[in-house]
Amino acid sequence: MYNILVGGAAGQGIDTTVSTLEKFLKKSGYYVFSTRDVMSRVRGGHNFSIIRFGSEALPSHSYLLDGIIAFNLETITEHKDKLKDNGFILCDSNLPTDDPKAIKLNMEETARNIGNPRVFGIIATGVLLKLFGENLDYAEEVIKGSVKSQYFDINIRAIQEGYNMVDARYDHIDSDFKDWLLISGNQSIALGAIAGGLKFYAAYPMSPSTSIMEYLATKSMTADIVVEQAEDEIAAINMAIGGYYAGARSMTGTSGGGFSLMVEALGLSGIAEIPLVVVNVQRPGPATGLPTRTEQSDLKFVVSASHGEFPRMVMAVRDHRDAFYQTARAFELAEKYQIPVIILSDQYLADSIATVEPFDISKYPLPLHKVSEDAGEEYLRYKFTEDGISPRRIPGETKALVSADSDEHTERGWITESSEVRIKMMDKRLLKLKKLKEDLIEPEVIGPEDSDTFLIGWGSTYGPIKEAIKILNSDKDNNKYGALVFGDVYPLPTKTLLGKSKTAKKLINVEQNATGQLAGLIREYTGIECTSSILKYDGRQISAEEIVEVVRKGGQ
User: Cα separation of 513 and 294, whole Å?
Assistant: First the structure.
């Protein structure tokens, strides 16, 4: 496998270069995993992407580099220490570097001679393809899908010029992922929502969740869904609640700051027992925090968000494949239990690109809610039942009044201040949690079942942890390393955790926050204490190498 970093200032065309490279590599059959590190500015600063590719599935990123494509000198100085011994730096001949690993070419001059300085990145793409022994068989197809038609010819010439500048340095690796998808985490969530029967999406743009709305908007006509950009997050969540009340499977998406504005309406979904799906794509807070970075610091917040007590479910998507299936599942659970379901993702997963096996849509889309009339029966929207789930009908599909109330109410849906009814209605709603626990998915077990040390993680730490376990178990010591990575986090599935905790010598929680929020939930609901923690909260995703380094030292 290989690992290439493309870096420079905002506005230099890094995204176009990276996107083009990803498509070429995927067309060549490689498995691709790429991440983006972007500053919160339109021009200048230092941005970079890391493209990892090879002949086997790659669960996460790595900072150990085979090559650097440097659009400016800062990229070289910032990242050259991460280069492997046989690595290279591809840059323009005018950059003042005497690094012996540098391949300095007249790419800027060539771009000007072609007639457009902005094709520098495409020239660099051609150079890289040649270095890795690739051909230009897919040039027309990839470039046609990447640039406007009037720029097609000049980009074809640019990639050919770059390809002819160097000789091959590496051999092509045979692999066969051509028929797989190349997709971002947010696109997977959007497709999972469509598969789950989404009919209405309302949101206010807030990075890193915005691309969910953008992608859904591009598919709205073919998927027969309505996408609404609301005036703010309060309006967005209330629109989604209204959509679900009217019978349309609905979702809203935001990040932590926007979710903060949604919490009162979240309680409305809870007490009115109206299904709802909310996506929170986390970024570092508090307040504006680091708006283009990643973190897992909203877990405890969403578990208890909004005043009062009501049932909810919180699930964290672990990778690009999981994002699709968990999102589709969220609609099923929201409707089955008439509760809000909150999906946690983060910037790392949202913006990273991965090769994914085509999704199995044989069971999707799920049918929309439909209820037949019960002749002669009085309809009680909030009827007391053994499992707490009352019969839900859709306005317009029944002659009965379909109540929905933010005040405490009777079975009929009329406002009440009766203490007796209040207790019964609270107990009824909370009964759903008991039945919901039957639908929970236990954390995935990675590594040997009888491991001495278990890493405990959730959400997007899945990939780095999975790779770290592989590295740790290749050591020659006598320890066995395993991991439990949670997708469902509230209510917390405890069966597997309780079993492993009885035999493991160490439990180390690995989280992208400063306080060990999952470890706190585990302690609260099981009494189990993690032995130590590996916590990262600088806005950058933890890597397998970082996890391995800390574990080998005995944990933090």
Answer: 10
